[in-house]
Design a protein that fits this description.
Radius of gyration: 25 Å
Strand order of the largest sheet: 1-2
Number of helices: 14
Shape: globular
Helix content: over 70%
Order of helices and strands: HEEHHHHHHHHHHHHH
Distance between the termini: 54 Å
Number of strands: 2
Strand content: under 5%
Largest sheet: 2 strands, antiparallel
Length: about 300
C-alpha cells in the first residue's frame, strides 16, 4: 500500500501570512521609533553622535528610568516656535487636503463614468507624474512660479499682465499649496476612483426614473457611497503633508513655517538630535489620531 501523505494544516500557512507583515512593522517601524524615543530622552553633547546615550549595555530598569530626561519635551511646550510649527503644518495640511478633494473628486467621478475602454488610459495619465522624480517635478515649479518664470510670460502673452510687471507667487504660501496639490493629487484621485468605479449605476437610473434631479442624486447616492474613498484619499494625503519638508523648503519662503522644516533644522542645522527626536515623536503622536479615526471608519464601513 502506498504511503499516504498527511495533509498540511491550513492554520500554519495562515499564521505565516500574518506574521510576515508584523515582523516587517517591528523591524522597520517599531524598532526605529524606539530608537528615536531613546534619543529624545537623552542630553545634547558635542560628540558623534551628538547626544549622551540613555542606556548603555544591560543596565537595570531602575538605572534606566533614573537616566531618562524629559527636558526636551518640556522645552517644546515652553518655546512657541514649535507650537506654531505644529499648528501651521496642520492648517496647511487641512487646507491642502480640502483643495485636493475639491479638485480630485470631479476628476475621479469623470474617470469612473467614462467608457470602460478608456478608463485604463485615464488611470495611466493620473499616475504618469510618478514616472518622473518627485524632486525634479518640484524644481520644475520653481521655473514656473518665479517672478520671471513661465507663468509671468504666459500671462503677459495673453494680455492679462502688463509688460515689465511680474507675478510674486514664488516663495509664498500660495506656491506651497500649488506644489502640494500638484504632487499629491494622484493619491487623492486613485482611492476616489476605486470607490466610484464600483458604484452600481442602476441606482442613479432608478433615482432619475423617480424624478430625482442629478444634483440631489449625487448627494443622496453617489457621495455617500464614495465616502470610503474620500476618507482613504484624505488620510493618505493629510498624514504625509503634515510632515512635508521638500515642498515648503523649495517653494515656500521664510514665513512658511512647517514642522518638517523645523525638524530638519534641528537635526542638521543645530545638530540637536535629542530635541529633534522629541519633535518627531510628538509629530507621530499627533498623526496617530487621524490614523485611528481612519481605522475606525474603515471598520464601520
Amino acid at each position: 500500500m502506498a504511503d499516504t501523505v498527511a495533509p498540511s494544516k491550513p492554520g500554519s500557512a495562515k499564521w505565516l501570512v500574518v506574521i510576515i507583515p508584523y515582523l516587517w512593522m517591528v523591524l522597520f517601524f517599531l524598532t526605529p521609533f524606539l530608537i528615536i524615543v531613546k534619543i529624545s530622552l537623552s542630553d545634547t553633547a558635542i560628540a558623534m553622535p551628538p547626544y549622551t546615550p540613555v542606556l548603555e549595555g544591560f543596565a537595570a530598569i531602575g538605572d534606566f528610568i533614573s537616566q531618562l530626561d524629559f527636558e526636551n519635551y518640556i522645552f517644546l511646550t515652553e518655546d512657541s516656535l514649535y507650537f506654531n510649527a505644529y499648528v501651521s503644518s496642520l492648517r496647511i495640511a487641512l487646507i491642502s487636503t480640502f483643495l485636493l478633494l475639491l479638485i480630485g473628486y470631479p476628476m475621479a467621478l469623470a474617470m469612473a463614468r467614462a467608457s470602460v475602454t478608456i478608463r485604463p488610459t485615464l488611470v495611466m495619465l493620473v499616475i504618469l507624474p510618478f514616472w518622473t522624480s518627485f524632486l525634479i517635478r518640484v524644481y520644475a515649479w520653481i521655473g514656473i512660479l518665479k517672478p520671471e518664470g513661465l507663468l509671468t510670460v504666459l500671462l503677459q502673452s495673453l494680455g492679462l499682465m502688463d509688460e515689465g510687471s511680474q507675478v510674486q507667487i514664488f516663495r509664498t504660501e500660495i506656491a506651497v499649496f500649488i506644489g502640494i496639490v500638484y504632487s499629491y493629487l494622484p493619491f487623492m484621485v486613485l482611492p476616489l476612483y476605486a470607490a466610484l468605479e464600483k458604484m452600481d449605476g442602476t441606482l442613479l437610473e432608478a433615482a432619475s426614473d423617480l424624478g430625482c434631479p442629478p444634483w440631489k442624486a449625487f448627494w443622496k447616492i453617489t457621495f455617500p457611497l464614495s465616502i470610503p474613498g474620500v476618507i482613504a484619499g484624505s488620510m493618505i494625503c493629510f498624514i504625509p503633508i503634515t510632515g512635508e519638508f521638500v515642498i515648503p523648503d523649495l517653494l515656500g519662503g521664510a514665513d512658511t513655517l512647517m514642522i518638517g522644516k523645523t525638524l530638519w533644522t534641528e537635526f542638521f542645522g543645530n545638530r540637536d538630535w535629542p530635541l529633534a527626536s522629541a519633535v518627531a515623536v510628538l509629530l507621530l503622536l499627533i498623526l496617530v489620531v487621524p490614523i485611528a479615526i481612519f481605522q475606525n471608519q474603515q471598520q464601520k464601513l
